[in-house]
Amino acid sequence: MAAAAAPTVKPSAPAPVLIVMTSHATKGSTGEPTGFYLGEVTHPLAVFQAAGIPVEFASIQGGEPPVDGLDLKDATNVRYWNDATFRQSLRTTLKLDDVKVGRYSAVFYAGGHGAVWDFPKSPAVQRVTREVYEAGRVVGAVCHGPAALVNVKLSDGKYLVAGKQVSAFTDDEERAVKLEKVVPFLLATTLEERGAKHQPAANWTAKVVVDGRLVTGQNPQSATGTAEAVRDLILARAAKPAP
């Protein structure tokens, strides 16, 4: 008599990704508007949705965050900007301080210049990032999104980025957009001061760095690739049978 076939173990469905946006709306004392960079939300969102990974949105203050980089020549931006569900999701983002990280497979920090003002000083950013990372899940950030990482310390008191390879908006790119004296700090330099090993590419060149469960990208051109690397880590984890 033939032995019964072993039951097939189905991989668990991935938990949602939390995409976090800045709530800061002005570039320092210039009064010029800023916010989160639209393509650094829409392009990752497209990657996650295509992979069947749910996405939820949060911002530092909750509600509707200010948007920058409203490029409606970009087909992905247009698709989402004209989508009523997406726009409603933007209007009703979670306040990051209210987030319970246990429900997420990853946190993904979108950039936009506003991030360098409110991400580093946010206790919620520090808590959420630490808890996600120490739970064995994925932390992703792109462009100015890695500003979320500059003050995050793990439970042992060490900076999360210490000794890790990272990518972020470079000092040269900041000078190229003539904001090096407007932003409160230069992101790449500050990450290096925290012990990170910054890996720059030429201005406006896509660059993604994966160091374990930390995934970072340099600029808007890196948004899709950064999300793809996060996706791959999430799906690999979800494919492992539950203990």
Automatic annotation (TrEMBL):
<protein>
    <submittedName>
        <fullName>Type 1 glutamine amidotransferase domain-containing protein</fullName>
    </submittedName>
</protein>
<dbReference type="InterPro" id="IPR002818">
    <property type="entry name" value="DJ-1/PfpI"/>
</dbReference>
<dbReference type="Pfam" id="PF01965">
    <property type="entry name" value="DJ-1_PfpI"/>
</dbReference>
<dbReference type="InterPro" id="IPR029062">
    <property type="entry name" value="Class_I_gatase-like"/>
</dbReference>
<feature type="domain" description="DJ-1/PfpI">
    <location>
        <begin position="39"/>
        <end position="224"/>
    </location>
</feature>
<keyword id="KW-0315">Glutamine amidotransferase</keyword>
<dbReference type="InterPro" id="IPR050325">
    <property type="entry name" value="Prot/Nucl_acid_deglycase"/>
</dbReference>
<keyword id="KW-0346">Stress response</keyword>
<comment type="similarity">
    <text>Belongs to the peptidase C56 family. HSP31-like subfamily.</text>
</comment>
<keyword id="KW-0456">Lyase</keyword>
